[in-house]
């Protein structure tokens, strides 16, 4: 019986590994850049939780904009971060008005709360949150319900050495169509909708672990019968 109890506890522990589930997921470039997010409208102020996974061990940046085309770096709100010197996590708040290096928001206008930055297998994973509307007009782009928002990304194999020192992206892109960040829906009736389920990798891992736990419990019972 002890074995079974142990295995059940192990299974339950597996199920509670890692917290955050993200409601929305977009593959911005397959195998290179994924973004996950949730807007929590129960929180006051409303808060957006982002996670992005980029194929780089240098800096990786996520941006969002209400610019009509989504391109040209016009009015992009940008989060740029990474892990440098193997253990130093960083994420800074930027804004760009035009093509070129984004401008670092003042020290007093850093609105991004970095909760995790990790590097593994050549990928950088960053999790952060921010108030949907910081009120920093001209420094931030609010995340709003019903407003068309394009999402963009960039990366470089080298890390930023400080908030103002980083090389130009070696890879980048932006969504051809805008999204409603609150609902995760694409603004288009003709093209495929993004995945809006909580089908993140974390969920799949948990389901797999749950199955593993059930199998182990069954194995445990079989072994005890003998
Ligand atoms: C949203 O925030 C509320 C209040 O902090 C919390 O209870 C709830 O679990 C959060 N919802 C999600 C989906 O994270
Ligand atoms: C990172 O690792 C180096 C070398 O092991 C150590 O000296 C430094 O304190 C660490 N820095 C952080 C932020 O943990
Ligand atoms: C977004 O706005 C629509 C239309 O006003 C509303 O029905 C919906 O509940 C809102 N969604 C969220 C997540 O706030």
UniProtKB/TrEMBL annotation:
Lineage: Eukaryota, Metazoa, Cnidaria, Anthozoa, Hexacorallia
Membrane topology: Single-pass membrane protein
Keyword match Oxidoreductase: yes
One Pfam family cited in the UniProt record for this chain: DOMON
Keywords: Copper, Metal-binding, Monooxygenase, Oxidoreductase, Signal
One term under GO cellular component: extracellular space
Oxidoreductase in keyword set: yes
Name the UniProt record assigns to this protein: DOMON domain-containing protein
SUPFAM superfamilies named among the record's database cross-references: CBD9-like
Alphabetized GO MF terms: copper ion binding; dopamine beta-monooxygenase activity
CDD domains: DOMON_DOH
One of the GO BP terms on file: norepinephrine biosynthetic process
Family matches, as InterPro entries: DBH-like, DOH_DOMON, DOMON_domain
Cofactor(s), by name: Cu(2+)
């Amino acid at each position: 019986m002890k074995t079974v109890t142990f295995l059940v506890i192990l299974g339950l522990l597996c199920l509670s590994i890692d917290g955050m589930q993200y409601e929305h997921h977009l593959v911005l470039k397959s195998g290179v850049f994924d973004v996950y997010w949730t807007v929590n409208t129960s929180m006051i102020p409303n808060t957006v939780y982002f996670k992005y996974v980029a194929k780089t061990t240098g800096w990786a940046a996520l941006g969002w904009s209400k610019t009509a085309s989504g391109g040209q770096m016009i009015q992009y709100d940008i989060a740029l971060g990474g892990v440098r010197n193997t253990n130093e996590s960083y994420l800074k708040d930027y804004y760009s008005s035009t093509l070129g290096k984004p401008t670092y928001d003042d020290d007093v206008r850093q609105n991004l709360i970095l909760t995790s930055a990790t590097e593994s297998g050549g990928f950088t994973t960053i999790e952060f949150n921010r108030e949907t509307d910081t009120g920093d007009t001209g420094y931030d782009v609010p995340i709003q319900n019903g407003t068309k928002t394009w999402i963009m990304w960039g990366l470089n194999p080298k890390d930023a050495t400080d908030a103002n020192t980083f090389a130009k992206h070696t890879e980048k892109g932006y969504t051809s169509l805008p999204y409603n960040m609150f609902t995760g829906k694409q603004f288009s009736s003709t093209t495929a909708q993004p995945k809006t389920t909580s089908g993140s990798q974390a969920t799949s891992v948990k389901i797999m672990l749950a199955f593993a736990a059930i199998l182990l419990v069954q194995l445990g019972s079989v072994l005890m019968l003998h």
